[in-house]
Design goal:
The chain is α+β, with helices and mostly antiparallel strands and 142 residues long. It has one domain (6-141): Sandwich (Jelly Rolls). Helices cover 17% and strands 34% of the residues. The protein has 2 helices and 10 strands. It has a 7-stranded antiparallel β-sheet, covered by helices on one side. The protein has a 3-stranded antiparallel β-sheet with strand order 7-6-9, with no helix packed on it. The radius of gyration is 14 Å and the shape is globular.
Length: 142
Amino acid sequence: MTENYRYYPKQYQFVIGITWDHVDQQITYEKEAETYSKISDTTDLVIHCGVVPGLLQNIKTKFTRHGYRDMHIYSSRHKEAVTMGRHNDDQDVLIVQSLGKMMYVFDDGDSVTLNPGDGLYIPKFVYHNPVHVEPRITVSLS
């Protein structure tokens, strides 16, 4: 295991409650606010999660108490969905799985598969490749 990340199995069970309806409502809101983005025709990126009162705002509040400012949601309803590919981030990120599975592959060949409720801390500038395993909802915090 590379020393550049930390895996937290089943540490974020409260995030499992996010449903497709929550994501759809947030996408609708963000389209109206012109803050919506998407990675591809198969993968949505919700930028300003938590601005709509309810579950997403409550989840964001919990993470804000632990020092995370920004919360994004990646959602892919298709097994063949496109991800951002191999990249690094210019800030530390915590990836938390809400629905489905995702795998993250690191340059040293190590990989971690996230199940609902699992978290993965990736320090800034560490290259990783998110690999879509099945339809998913993933929360990314920075």
